[in-house]
């Protein structure tokens, strides 16, 4: 997605659909931001500065500190949460069993915590957990770039004998 100047702002498992060809499609751009000219437009478009699902929201979106929006690294954090969910079958912060998990999650984030590696089956292999941890860094400048994440995913799939390709398509 970051090959074009768009920050999605609400990457969650529920906002990724798989088509009949097995290709992932990112949906729900309601919280997205255009960060530089796109298709001839020359202005910044910010639809919202409020985070989407708390379980997937980058810590900087949940703080009261002022920072320059938008941050592509917020999507990287959310991608790490989605990767955690896909590989473990559990939501980020699944250890929180509250009916209203927002407050306990905010409390843990304020303490500098991030989602934990779930135990059990399916197990997350170490190389996958390493990239997830990098994506879930509390300080956004420590998170990998979209290119680094892309390279990991391509390498991961090629080493498993599967092929993977990425392209950004705007379907209207």
TrEMBL record:
Domain of life, source organism: Eukaryota
Coiled coil stretches, renumbered: none
Pfam families: Pkinase
This protein's record includes keyword ATP-binding: yes
InterPro entries in the cross-refs: Kinase-like_dom_sf (IPR011009), Prot_kinase_dom (IPR000719), Ser/Thr_Kinases-Pseudokinases (IPR051681), Tyr_kinase_AS (IPR008266)
Nucleotide-binding keyword on record: yes
Protein kinase domain mapped to chain residues: 1-153
PROSITE patterns: PROTEIN_KINASE_DOM, PROTEIN_KINASE_TYR
Entry keywords, A to Z: ATP-binding, Nucleotide-binding
Gene Ontology MF terms: ATP binding; protein serine/threonine kinase activity
Protein name: Protein kinase domain-containing protein
């Amino acid at each position: 997605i970051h090959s074009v100047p768009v920050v999605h702002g609400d990457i969650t498992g529920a906002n990724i659909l798989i088509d009949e060809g097995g290709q992932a499609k990112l949906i729900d751009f309601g919280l997205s931001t255009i960060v530089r000219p796109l298709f001839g437009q020359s202005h910044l478009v910010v639809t919202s500065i409020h985070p989407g699902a708390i379980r997937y929201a980058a810590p900087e979106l949940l703080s009261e500190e002022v920072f320059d929006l938008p941050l592509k690294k917020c999507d990287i954090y959310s991608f790490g949460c989605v990767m955690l969910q896909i590989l473990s079958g559990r939501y980020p912060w699944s250890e929180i069993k509250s009916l209203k998990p927002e407050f306990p999650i905010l409390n843990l984030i304020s303490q500098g915590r991030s989602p934990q590696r779930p135990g059990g089956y399916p197990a997350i292999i170490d190389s996958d957990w390493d990239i997830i941890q990098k994506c879930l860094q509390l300080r956004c400048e420590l998170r990998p770039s979209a290119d680094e994440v892309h390279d990991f995913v391509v390498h991961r799939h090629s080493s498993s004998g599967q092929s993977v390709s990425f392209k950004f398509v705007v379907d209207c």
